[in-house]
Specification:
InterPro entries: Cell_wall/Cho-bd_repeat (IPR018337). By secondary structure, the chain is mostly beta strands. The chain folds into 3 domains: about 100 residues, no CATH class; about 80 residues, Immunoglobulin-like, CATH 2.60.40; about 80 residues, left handed beta-beta-3-solenoid. The chain has 2 helices and 26 strands.
């Protein structure tokens, strides 16, 4: 009896060793997937019944793919304030397995991460995503076009209250973040250096300004050194045309050649930059403009650039404070 008992224990130990060995061999052969990228396109509209949602889920991963997806909190019909909860099933290829389980490892475009769960020996990853409410959802900007004369144009988006736009030279932002309710901006006066110019734009929800759509990039336009110098000369000639006027109290205004006071804009006058407030007065001291801080000489109003301000802060070549 004791001998038989020992044999049974030996067989159990052998099976455990084989299982452990198989697991180690499996892990050694397969490679880890340490991050995933998910893109959710389309939207859930109010009054839509479950099963009729216009949603597409894709991924850029080469070692995993989207198996299927479904809504977790379906109702008779989606209301404007519902928060759709989408469960996405990803599967790895035969040579990989998921090590992903935290939100920081999962990049989601079009929704917000809620949770993730690995199953089937880590070859399946279930990601639960919260979509925007139907009231805040917007269409995607389909086309953004940039032309040699500096015109940035994109198609209007239903549900957008305004747009955020970044103008770029090569891979560097120029002029700060712009907000506009229109679907076009002219950036010609900022194209004063040689380089490849383009812009990126995204819609901001009319209902919930905290919700932004995805960034869309435009085509690129190359500006040579001679073309940039010509634009710079245009800027100087245009912006300098006019007259300074000093009012009671020592404040200054600048009347342009068209007879209009400069307002809510930058002006390059005699090769120095000045900013004029919405009330048409010249700005001075620290100013917060288009999400950037600038220092304007309190005595002259001229923008300080590539130097340290009197109170010890450094501003870059284009005047923005560099933290």
């Amino acid at each position: 009896m004791r001998k038989g008992y020992k044999i049974i224990l030996g067989l159990i130990a052998l099976c455990a060793s084989v299982t452990l060995l198989s697991t180690n061999v499996w892990a050694a052969k397969k490679k880890k997937i340490k991050s995933v990228n998910i893109k959710i396109s389309g939207k859930v509209e109010a009054d839509t019944k479950p099963g009729n949602e216009n949603i597409e889920v894709t991924t850029t991963g080469e070692t995993y793919s989207v198996e299927d997806f479904s809504f977790e909190n379906t109702t008779f019909a989606w209301s404007a304030d519902d928060v759709p909860e989408l469960k996405i099933h990803l599967v790895s290829d035969e040579d990989h397995y998921f090590e992903v389980y935290q939100g920081s490892q999962i990049k989601i475009n079009g929704g917000t991460f809620k949770k993730a769960d690995r199953q089937d020996g880590a070859t399946s990853l279930y990601v639960t995503v919260l979509l925007p409410t139907p009231a805040t959802q917007m269409d995607v900007i389909q086309k953004a076009t940039f032309s040699e004369d500096g015109n940035a144009v994109w198609n209007s988006v239903e549900g957008a209250g305004n747009y955020e736009v970044k103008f770029m030279r090569n891979e560097t932002a120029v002029g700060g973040l712009q907000n506009t309710v229109l679907n076009t901006i002219n950036y010609r006066k900022l194209m004063t250096k040689e380089g490849s110019y383009w812009f990126k734009v995204r819609p901001i929800s009319k209902v919930n300004p905290d919700f932004a759509g995805e960034w869309v990039d435009s085509n690129r336009v190359y500006i040579s050194r001679s073309e940039a110098e010509a634009i710079d000369a245009e800027n100087v000639a245009r912006d300098s045309a006019g007259n300074w006027e000093q009012l009671d109290g020592g404040k200054w205004k600048f009347k342009t050649a068209d007879g209009v006071y400069a307002n809510n804009e930058w002006r390059r006058i005699n090769k120095k930059w000045y900013y004029f407030l919405p009330d048409t007065y010249m700005a001075a001291g620290w100013q917060h403009i288009n999400n950037n801080w600038y220092y304007l000489d309190p005595a002259t109003g001229a923008m300080l650039a590539n130097s340290t301000t009197p109170d010890g802060y450094f501003v870059g070549l284009t005047g923005e404070w560099i933290p």
